[in-house]
Amino acid sequence: MEAAVGYLGVNADNLKDTELRLGLPGTGAVDDHHHLSSQKALPSSVPSTPRGKKRAAEDNDDEATESDDAVEAAPPVAKAQVVGWPPVRSYRKSCFQVAASKSKAVGNKDEASKNTTAPAAAVATNGSLVKVSMDGAPYLRKIDLRMYKGYRELREALEAMFVCFSGADNNSGANPSEFAITYQDKDGDLMLVGDVPFDMFTRTCKKLRIMKRSEVTGLGSPRQTKI
Amino acid sequence: MGFGPGRSQSFFLVLAAARSEKLGGRGSHVQIGYEWQMCFFVCLLISCWFLGERNNLETGRKRIPSCSSSSKAVLGEGTMTYFPEEVVEHIFSFLPAQRDRNTVSLVCKVWYEIERLSRRSVFVGNCYAVRAERVALRFPNVRALTVKGKPHFADFNLVPPDWGGYAGPWIEAAARGCVGLEELRMKRMVVSDESLELLSRSFPRFRALVLISCEGFSTDGLAAIASHCKLLSELDLQENEVEDRGPRWLSCFPDSCTSLVSLNFACIKGEVNAGLNLSYAPTLDASDLTKMISRCVKLQRLWVLDCISDKGLQVVASSCKDLQELRVFPSDFYVAGYSAVTEEGLVAISLGCPKLNSLLYFCHQMTNAALITVAKNCPNFTRFRLCILEPGKPDVMTNQPLDEGFGAIVRECKGLRRLSISGLLTDKVFMYIGKYAKQLEMLSIAFAGDSDKGMMHVMNGCKNLRKLEIRDSPFGDAALLGNVAKYETMRSLWMSSCNVTLKGCQVLASKMPMLNIEVINEWDGCNEMEENHGELPKVEKLYVYRTTAGARDDAPNFVKIL
Predict the structure, then answer these.
(1) What does the alpha-carbon distance between residue B397 and residue A176 come to, in Å, rounded to a whole number?
(2) Where is the PB1 domain (chain A) (predicted)?
């Protein structure tokens, strides 16, 4: 599916993201996918036998039994699926989905391929996709916390993701110290990112929020934003 | 377990040979010199028989004493003075295959004892077929234990979570009774961190842990293994659901750890020299891929994604003449999507790789003509698994069912042990399978067949069938009950989304008390089933297996054991 997006052109991903419509980013409309699949079905070498495009009549959409990862990275609901079909191990399927969500989050195809070539045996059973909001940004993003080894990598990824929104009145782009990264933990409290060990953070973080420094009161000195 | 000498012994030997299948295990792994060992073994048996016969002639009547002290004069002492225990044990050491060891243990009580105390390797194909304590008690000196848990369709999410397959009882039983354990292999089981901790502390000589498609543990459990298993030489983790609590566990290996030889937790299967696994690399450029493969002329095993395309498979066919196993996985899991491999790629492979014996092939279309060609080119298939992604799809050229294609496969490949079929299939394909697939041990069926006759062809015809798994096919009670004795010769039967009713299962349960009939109803359909007395409610998922352990006591509430 990601490959087909590339088929349309370099900016296809960005265009889709800024398209005005109802719904969370990442869930495409029915039309999109039909369009994509018809794009895919134009092979360069024409085979001698006809390509069957019959859709199975008895499909049920039960694929939602998988974790949030699957919902996020899967094509839209209209593309129905039979439970447990095709007979591919869930581990294999989830590896592809992790790769898809990672490439979405980071927006960098090269990194995605690095991950798919050598997946570790460690695949967490709980989804660790969290929403990331930024004050003033028109829409949210979602990232997979398992993709990052530590706070620095996380911060860099977030900066890359939201750089377009923070440079409005600043020619040199976002000034990192203007923002504080906070998160909502299991108890619903707003916490400053960076206090606890990264492992613990990834387990307890439910949502990320990038706040303007001016709004951060009582969460610690400006120096603490340096992670 | 008393058996007598002479004719009774011969009789029991024949019986043991017939019944040895029941105790599981596959054919002998030792090929070289096996005939010589068997000759020696047979001579030993014949001498026992003679001794027994001589006794019968003298006493004038048939006695069936047990091999106890009272019968020493007859047989016990006769064999034992000729062959002391150590010698018998040494003879048994030439029979490493479980099936053969099960056979010799049925000959007489003495041999049973000698065999069980000298057994080094035990394979349990279904963890619920026998109690863990019983295995540990019988084989206290076991060094290598293999246990399998969930049915195969659990790989595709057809078995609900919490169904079972717990490793705990096995590790606990071994910890109590088999302290010499060195190797543990588990597949599709639920392993907890506590169990791994217990494992790491209970076996001073433990050196190899292999977990395949397991779940329930975290890297903390692995940390315990790394910390306490001083002699660990092999740690092999394949496709497990492991909760990652950080890389700290890797540093738990002691600094003085010099024993670790093989560490595998990146899903690469087999030796790198003989095999190549590229099945997790979708962004690998097809032309780069084929360029690389064209240089791997000694390749025996290749796992790729369908991005390789028919063209790429042609390159494989012309370069990899030693290829024995090929797996082509789908990169697009959606039924009506697109795939770059078709029946043409498969035909090309069959033409170029005559040594091919194991195939797993996902594609979107197939023809009878292609399958017939493949069957003629590669009669050596032992494993043939074809998955056409769209259920019930016919021959794409003729619009006919694929009965003839698969029929050719089973007819030509006389050594076929495992088969998975797909596409549009009628009862006819099962007629072919029952008629020709005499070595078949495992059959996977999905969206196939017209009537009960289909399944009955298989149940009646496939003499060596051990595992049968069926989903979404129109087989009902008549098929389920058509050959009930067959289930005793099989490890298990799985049926989901078929036409079997609760009544049919109950009848089977009443006829065959040595089977566990598990009715699995995820949506708490127990209540539903009781409500609809008028129409026969269909069983959603059924798992039948032979067992000596009776109904298991760890079944969740959505599993009803009849």
Answers:
(1) 62
(2) 127-213
